[in-house]
Design a protein that fits this description.
The protein is mainly beta. It has one helix and 25 strands.
Length: about 350
Amino acid sequence: MNNYFLAETNEQGHFSLEDLPGEGWDMRPWGSSEPASGQYKVTVKHERYSAPEKKLKLSAGQLIDDLVIEAYGQTTLIRCQVVAADSNSPLAGARIGGSNKIGRIDGYADANGVFTVRVLPGPVSLSFYSPPDGVYVLRENGPGSNLNFEAAGAEMTVTLRAPAVAGVLVNVPGFALGPDGRAVSGAVLYASAGSFHTSNASSYIRPVGAENDGLFELKEVPAGRKLNIYAETKDRSLAGKAVFDVPAEPNESFFVEVKLQATRHASVVVKDKKGDIVPDTTVAISPVVGGDELWPAKRHRRTDENGALEIDGIVPGLEYYLEDVEFQNRARRQVSVEGIFRGRMVLIPQK
């Protein structure tokens, strides 16, 4: 769960970590087949010393009062210069990750584009994780964005090449309008802009709700790209789509309008690529706009024994992505997905 419990040593080097979750986190709600294991990792951060990562296994109610961690003064200070691949200029604020005997490495480049970490001699890996706040890149990794080397000596300097910054992130305001041209309050707006990576997300724009006057604002949208929007009321009686070109530079006059229309009930027979029906199957159904699947708007329905799917709130002429829920479960467990249904179809043809 990437949850950390911190403690500072006193003058005698003693520390105490209390009230740790009994047996750790139970990951079964997130699809794992394993319950909580009670396993923990203990690492040390210090200006002059480093220690190998130590693994513990705790049971509920257990007390460990004889733990000893050996810290070493013979360490290597790594200075990693992070530069943009297109310009070789320092990239301040880039997130860097990796590993060493000390355990997981995670931090940010400073104002000069330098990331520093003290490690133990031996193998070190460093990689570009994400760009600074406020900008986006089009790929996570490229040549020189992953380093593997041997730490040795008191200090080392390495250079990490980060993907070029593709543009800035902007907020996009707009109105949600109904078939009569009036504002629609309470509608939910889902958006996509293709594949991109920000400091805290990958190809994801947070859904937002329209206010009472129909006004909404999508935040951290990649500028200079196509913005695909799908909107629907909470009861799904109204829904609609729109595609816009976001200006490459911040533009206060850029404003969008998304028009919603009355939805209909769809009754279709789901067939696979071979033309065979897909009976007794739970499928996830997501609208597709501009070629992008708006997965945060997905719903689940089950086909009957004849492969028939009944669902309300469908926009005529809009394409939807249908995926067997078992595909998601198998992919999460990294097992074979052969034979699992996936496909796109228009549930109600546009007249």
